Fold each of these.
Amino acid sequence: MLAGLNNLDNDMRTERTVTGMRSKALDGYWSWGAPWGYRNITDVTGRRVIEPHPQRAPIVKFLFEEYSRGTRTFRELAAEVNEMGDLRSKHGLKMSHQLVQKILTNPIHCGKIDVPTWGIATEGKHEPIVSVELFEEVQNVMRGGNSRTQPRNINNPDFPLRGVECLCGTHISGGYVTGRSKRYGYYGCTNTKCPYKKAIPKQKLEDSFTEFLQRYTPETNLMEALAEALKIVHRKQKRQNTQQTQKLKQKIEKLERELEDLLQLRLEQTIDNRDFLVETDKRKILKREIEVALQNLQTSNADEESAIDFGIKLIEQLPLLWKELEPAELRLLRNSLFPKNIQYTDAGFKTAELSPIYKVKAASGTDENRLVTPRGIEPRFQA
Ligand SMILES: [Zn+2]
C-alpha cells in the first residue's frame, strides 16, 4: 500500500506552499505581490492580504472610467496619467500602454480572484476599486464594436477573417484606414517582411471567402452524402469523448485510492494532521475539477441524429450566415472545417486539407477549383 506514496514525502515541501497558496486563493485571498493599484499589508490575524493603494487606486478608477467611454486608446490614457505631474514626481510613476492594458483586464480590480492556470475564479475578500459593471463595460469596449481603441482585437466582429494565413505563412489582420470623409476596412499580412504584402479591401476578401464556402457546400442532391460525412465526424468526436471520459474516470479512481492511503497513513500516525489535511485537500480539489470536466463531456455528447440535422443546416447556410457568427465561433468552425487553415491568394482562397464534410463535393467530381488539391479523397464513406 505504501508503494504508491513513495514520492509523496519528497514532493511535500513544494506541494505544501503551492497547496497553501491555492487554498488561500480559493478562499478569496490574494497572497502574491500586490497588482498595480493595490498594496500588500498584513491583517490582524497575520495574514498577508492586499488593500487599495491610497495614491494608485484613484488612478486605476480613472483609467476604467475613461476607457469605458470608448474614445481613448491605452497609449493616450497612459500619456494622460503621466501628465498628472505631481504624481509622477512623488511616486516615480511612469505609466505605459502595456500597463494600462494589464490593469484594465485584471478582474482583481472589481474584487475577483482569477487564477486561470489553477482553474480558480472566485470572489475576493479584498476591497474592489471599481464595480463589476464598470469592469464588464470596459471588457466590452475592448472586444471591439464602438471604439477605435482596439483595432487588433482578434474578436472584433468587424474583421471576422483575422487569422487567415497569408502565402508567406503569417496570419493576416484587419483594420480601418480613415480617408477624407469615410473609413475604409482592409485586411493585410502582419509580417513586415512579407513579399506578398498588400492591403486587401475588407469587402473583397470577405466576398472571396463566401465564394470559397459556396464552392464546397454540397448541393441538395449531395445532402445524403453530407449526412454520411457528418456521421463520420460525429462518431470520431464521440470516440474521442469516450476515450477522454475513460481517462478522467481513471484519474478519479487514482485520486480516491490516494485519499484512502492518506487516511490509512494518518490512522497509523505516519503523517501528522497538517500534512494529512494539506494532501487530502489538494486531491479533493483536483477530483472536483475532474468531475466538472466529466460532466461537460457528457453534455456535449448529443445524439447522432440531432447533431447531423444541425450540421446539415449549418453547412447549407454557412455561405449566407458566416458573417453573423461570433468571431470566436467562426474561428472554431473554421478550424474544424479547414484543419490546415486557409490561405489567401490573388486567385482566392485555398487550403491544404478539407474536412470530410467538404470533401463530399470534391469527391462528387463537380469540383472545379484547381487551387485546392484535397489529399486522399475517401473512395466511399464507411458507415
Ligand atoms: Zn504575408
Amino acid sequence: MYPGPLIEANEGDIIELTVINNLRASGTTIHFHGLHMRGTPWNDGPVQIAQAPIMPNTNYTYRFEAYPAGTFYWHSHMDALQQSRGLKGPIVIHRKEEPFAKMYTEEMVIMVSDEWRDPESCFKIDGAMPGNPVCSDAKYASFNGQWGDGTDTYPYPLLTVKPGKCYRLRWINSGSSAENFIITISGHNMTLIAVDGVPVKATQVKSFNIHNGERADVVVCMDQDPGYYLVTAEYDYGCRMLRGKGFPVPGFHPVEACRWYAFLRYAGTDADPPRPYRPWYPDFEVPRGTGGGSDPDPTTGAVFDTTVREGWSVTEPLHAAPLAPEPDLRYYVTLGLKGPTDVRPDNVPGTRGRWYSDLEDRRMSWTNPLTPVLHTKGKCGAEGVPITNVPENVTTIELVINNLSPTEHVMHLHGGYFRVINTAKFEWCAIDKPECFMMPQGLNPCPEEDRANGDLNHTWQWLPDYRPNVDKHPIRTPWIKAPLYWGCKYNEGKDKPHQNLQTPLYKDTLSVWQRSWSVVRLEATNPGMWLFHCHLQPHIPLGMMMVFNVKPSLQPPIPETVPTQGPCPVWSWADKYERMAEEYHRKARAVGKAYGTGFGKGPAKH
Ligand SMILES: [Cu+2]
C-alpha cells in the first residue's frame, strides 16, 4: 500500500502505533513529521538521535500525544532511501475548535511526491551526474502514490468529489529530491486556511506551493459544471532544467518532465474520461479536461509562493502573538558544501563532498553518534556530531540561516514550530536567472561585504562543463574551474528593517533559496534533542543535519523499551543496569554452584 495508511486522531488523543519490522535485512524507524512529541522525545523517530533502529523481526510501539492539530505525515527516518521507496503516509489531527469548520463538510488528503525509478543509485553525490539518467532530478511525480498519462496501463490519478460539496483538501509534499510543487486546480478558486498545520487567515489563492515536507490546507467548493478538471503539480525549478528547453546545470541531468497531472472528477459526471497525453520530450503535452473541465473558468486570487519574499505577506497566522524585538540568543547557521566536486561515477559515494548545516563558526557535517544522542544527552560517543547545547536559561532563539551554496535547501525542524521573520529578496539570483548558478563571484551583484564562501578551504571547484553537448556526450566533457560554493549573506544593518515581528507565519519546514538567507525565531521550551536538517533526501546521507539539545535537565527519562545501541549507557537507565548486573551475578553464582568453577564468588581478592 502506497502511500501507507492514514493516521487520524483528535487533538490531545494518545496515539499508540506498533511498527512490526518485516524487512529482511534493514532496521527502520518512523518519524511523525510536524508533531511536537511533547514529553516523548524518544518517539520522534530519527535514527541515532531519538532511538536505535527497530531491528528486522522485532517490533516497537510508539506512544505519543496527538499534538498539535493539523496536516502532517509519517515517514521512515532510518535513511533517505526507505522514505524515497515509499515508507510514508499521511497524518491528520483534528483540532478541538476548528475555526473553519463552517466552510466545508468533506475532507480529502493528497500526498504529492516525485518518484525515482531506483532511489538506491541516486543517493550518492554522483547520482545526479550526467550519464546517470536514472537519477535525473525529476521524471515522475505521483498523487497519492499514482502517476498516469491517461492510458489503460497508467490511468490518470483521480480526485473524485461530490458535486455541490465543499472540501478541505489537505496537501502534503512528501517528496524525495524535488524542492517544490506549485499546485493549481483548473476552474476552481481555493481558500488557503492552514500552512504546515497552523490555521492562517482565510485567503483566496489561485495557486499555492508546497516545498519538500511542507503542507497546505485549502477549501475548494465543487460548484462548477460536472466533468474532469485538470489538477497540476509543477516543479518550478525542474521546468528550468527541462530536456531541450531549459538550461543545463553542471552536476544535474536535464529533467524529463516538470509538470504532473491529476483530474478532479465530479462523481456521476457523464463526461468522457480525459484522453491520454504525451508527457515527455519533445512533446510535453498538457492533458485536457472534459465536461465542464474542457473549458474551465479562469481562477482568481493571490499566488501563495513562499520561495520568494512576497509570498510571506499573502496571509498571516489566524492567532498571532507579536514577537519581542530581540531574542534571548542568536545563532548564525550556515548551509554549505565542503570538499571538491570533481566527482566521477567511479568515486566512492560521499567521499568527495559533504553537505553541512551548522553553526557558522563550526560548520560540521553530520556524522552518526555511536549511541543515540538523546540517550546520552550528547555526552558519550558523540565526538564530531554537530550538537548545539542551548543554554537552559534561554527561551527565544533566533536562527540567521545563510545558504552559501548554489542550490535551494528545504530546512525542517523537529519538536516544534519556528516563525519566519525575514527572507532575502534575491531577484538577481531568482529562478528565472539560471546564470546565477555559474555566476563568477567577481561579476555578481551581491555587495562585496555580504559575500561569503561555503567552503573555507576551496574557493574554486572543478565542474563538468557539458553545456554545449548536454545530450550528445554527457560523460566525455571538459572540466572547468569556477567558484561555486558561495552566498550573499544576511546583513543586519540593511536587512533587519524588513523583518516582520508582528504576524510572521508559523512553520516547521522552510525553503532557503540558493545563495540566500532566511531568519526564523523559535521557542526552545520542549525538552529534547531536536534535529534541524535539510529535507531534500539526497542531502541527508551527505550530512546536512544538526541537533539542538534543549533543556537537558528537564528531558524525561527514556523508557526501557526504546531501542538503543552502541557503547554508551542510557543516562536514565541506572536502575536497569543495576538489575542487569544483579541478574548476571545471580546466574554466575548458579553456574558456579552447579559446576564448581569458582564463578560467581565475586571479584578475586589480591
Ligand atoms: Cu539540501
